[in-house]
Amino acid sequence: MELEKIGKFIKEMRKEKKLTQIELAQKLEVSEKTISKWECGNGFPDTTLVLPLCKELGVSANELLCGEKISGNEYKEKAEENIIALNLDIERKTKFLLTLEIVLGLFSTIILVAAVLSAGLALLPVWARIVLIVFGFVCFMFGVHFCLVIEKDAGFYECQHCHNKHVPTLKQTYFAMHFGRTRYMKCPKCKKSSWQKKVVK
User: Which helix (H) or strand (E) segment is 154 a member of?
Assistant: First the structure.
């Protein structure tokens, strides 16, 4: 998506509707700063705001994503281009999140190991050793929690029986037996349990 082009289009359509940034912000229940951010090409409306924004500007979602008015002949072609662009964008974000998960997991593990080693090797009073170990353990648990949240939300798990792709609940992600990014879970569609692999798309 060309955010700068989309931003200029939002500004142009807003002015065409004779709306100020404040008026549009009030209609969408966002801040004036948010509208300014979109129009400068520094961000894109949240998914829940795309259709309300399109309604206020009198454009289609396809036109908003293209950053221009589209004639009848071009509409289908542009829609397909937008779908491909959105899928690529989602895939890139998913890969980034999965990389972030690895980095976060390693970092929190290093903190725990460093805290335990320091508590065991450094000449410290008993209370300081306990504080150090508890600190390392708390950091590790927070790291694990955020890794599991990322693991849950980034990409999908694919059932080996019916090949349904789904996002598990946080509880399933926490308690399912796993080996790396393969988890033993029940499929919400066919209700059969299998070792399900993480897939990006």
Answer: none
Read off the pLDDT of each residue in 12-23 and give the average, rounded to a whole number: 93
Lowest mean pLDDT among 15-24, 62-71, 122-131: 62-71
From the list 115, 201, 191, 125, the residue with the least C-alpha distance to 165 is 201
The one-letter amino acid code at 200 reads V
The ranges assigned to domains in the chain are 3-70, 86-153, 156-199
d(CA 37, CA 50): 15
pLDDT at 45 over 90: no
Which homologous superfamily does the CATH classification assign to the domain defined by 3-70?
lambda repressor-like DNA-binding domains (1.10.260.40)
User: Are 106 and 144 spatial neighbours (Cβ–Cβ below 8 Å)?
Assistant: no
For residues 29 and 23, the answer to whether their CB atoms sit within 8 Å is no
- The pTM of the full predicted model, rounded to 2 decimals, is 0.60
